[in-house]
Amino acid sequence: MDNYILWGIGLLAIPVGGYAFVHALMQRADAFTAADKLTKPAWLGITGASVLILIVFYGGLGSSGSLFWLAALVASLVYIVDVKPAIVGVQGGGPHW
């Protein structure tokens, strides 16, 4: 049972990393510095490397590269949870009440 859960988490991590990379790719470069975050090329490198690591070490937490896999997942989630909302806010996006 545990193997299925880890396999499912590993399978879901790849699209999450891909989403973070594509979102960073589609944003304006000046929005990153305006939001006081790392530059766009830095985040493209971080999220791109994360996607590559998530694919290579697809086994997730049960594989031999689990430390790399976990670091890649955390990097993608940091982009989605911290950087993405700041960039969207700087560019005037987000919910309008």
Summarize the structure.
It comes from Pseudonocardia abyssalis. By secondary structure, the chain is mainly alpha-helical.
Topology:
Elements: H1 2-26, H2 29-34, H3 40-56, H4 66-90
Description:
Pfam families: DUF2516 (PF10724). Keywords: Membrane, Transmembrane, Transmembrane helix. InterPro entries: DUF2516 (IPR019662). It comes from Pseudonocardia abyssalis. The chain is built from 4 helices and no strands. With 97 residues, the protein is an all-alpha fold. α3 packs antiparallel against α4.
- Count all strands and give the number: 0
For the biggest sheet, the summary is: none
Task: Report the β-strand fraction as a percent range.
Answer: under 5%
Ends: how far apart? 44 Å
Q: Indicate the radius of gyration in whole angstroms.
A: 15 Å
- The number of distinct helices, counting runs of at least 4 residues, comes to 4
- The chain-level structural class is mainly alpha
pLDDT average, as an integer? Answer: 89
Unreliable segments of 5+ consecutive residues: none
As a percent range, the share of helical residues equals over 70%
Helix/strand order: HHHH
Shape: elongated
Transmembrane segments: 6-22, 42-61, 67-87
Keywords: Membrane, Transmembrane, Transmembrane helix
Protein name: DUF2516 family protein
Organism: Pseudonocardia abyssalis
